[in-house]
Design goal:
PH-domain like, 2 domains, 4-stranded antiparallel beta sheet, 5-stranded antiparallel beta sheet
Length: about 200
């Protein structure tokens, strides 16, 4: 993985690359690590860059169920933390392990707290209920001739969603909502009984 370009699955930065001395992130797409390295020394027009010295890294960690990893580091006495999302999530383990090797960090594996995923999934279930009620209300109003008209910057997407909801109707909205809630309850139950592993290099 060293001295290669790794595409990122996030909005701010498009690619990353690392050597045994530094990790470089760029908002522009580069084809080679050499080009990324040159850009880090002289950024291109409208290019955002971030560089993390390997010797500043204190910890790298991730949850096996998530698609990201977190780097904690200290520069000029200030502790910082960045979350990285690779486009190819299958590379995460090897990328993290290789960077940790440069810093001579030790690996530790523990079981995640059951509280965090439980709260997140319950929040997801609550959102499903809220959206189901809202969309059902919109569909019922449409049956009575009251059609929703979207406004604002994203009115095109909003109007498309409203038209879809009205076309589906309140009955199918309810069915989809119940199925979505049942799926969320199942996922919550499964993860609660089979907590993910937390991997930490420190």
């Amino acid at each position: 993985m060293k001295n290669q370009i790794l595409p990122l699955g996030e909005e701010t930065f498009k690619v990353m690359g690392f050597s045994d001395e530094q990790i470089i992130f760029s908002s522009k797409r580069h084809d080679t690590f050499e080009a990324l390295l040159a850009s880090s020394q002289k950024p291109g027009l409208l290019e955002s860059l971030k560089t993390i010295p390997v010797n500043a890294i204190q910890e790298i960690s991730y949850n096996e169920k998530d698609g990201s990893f977190t780097i904690k580091y200290s520069i000029y006495g200030k502790n910082k933390k960045d979350t990285v999302v690779l486009s190819d999530k299958g590379l995460r383990e090897s990328v993290v392990a290789e960077i940790a090797t440069f810093r001579k960090l030790n690996k530790a594996v523990s079981e995640e707290s059951k509280t965090r995923p439980l709260i997140l999934n319950l929040l997801g279930g609550a959102l499903i209920i809220v959206f189901t009620i809202g969309f059902r209300w919109m569909a019922i109003n449409a049956q009575h001739g009251e059609h929703y008209v979207a406004t604002g910057r994203k009115r095109g997407i909003g109007q498309l969603l409203a038209n879809t909801v009205e076309a589906i109707g309140p009955t199918w909205i309810t069915i989809i909502g119940v199925l979505g809630l049942a799926l969320m309850v199942y996922i919550t139950y499964k993860r609660y009984n089979n907590p993910a592993s937390e991997i930490k290099y420190s």
